[in-house]
């Protein structure tokens, strides 16, 4: 019985390093834009008109969310959770 279980052992998945690096960059840029947009909205930074903080916040959220999502998947895949896999992260095929 034990020999049958060893036959179907999963092969190790290839870690998409480029995609994880891009997700990290998107996460950091999005977080910076959200912080800057929040400071603009609160009035701590007074550069430009009153219509400036909303686009900065929207762009920050749109950049932050994919980066956060892919880093979330990568972190749980590295911990070995069965539900999460590196296959869920899009890879750049060289």
TrEMBL record:
Membrane topology: Multi-pass membrane protein
InterPro entries: TMEM230 (IPR044234), TMEM_230/134 (IPR008590)
Subcellular location: Cytoplasmic vesicle, Autophagosome; Cytoplasmic vesicle, Secretory vesicle, Synaptic vesicle; Early endosome; Golgi apparatus, trans-Golgi network
Record PROSITE patterns: PROKAR_LIPOPROTEIN
Family in the record: Belongs to the TMEM134/TMEM230 family.
GO biological process, one term: synaptic vesicle transport
Alphabetic keyword roster: Cytoplasmic vesicle, Endosome, Golgi apparatus, Membrane, Synapse, Transmembrane, Transmembrane helix
Transmembrane region(s): 20-42, 54-72
Main subcellular location of this protein, as a coarse class: cytoplasm
Cited Pfam families: TMEM_230_134
Name the UniProt record assigns to this protein: Transmembrane protein 230
A GO term from the CC aspect: late endosome
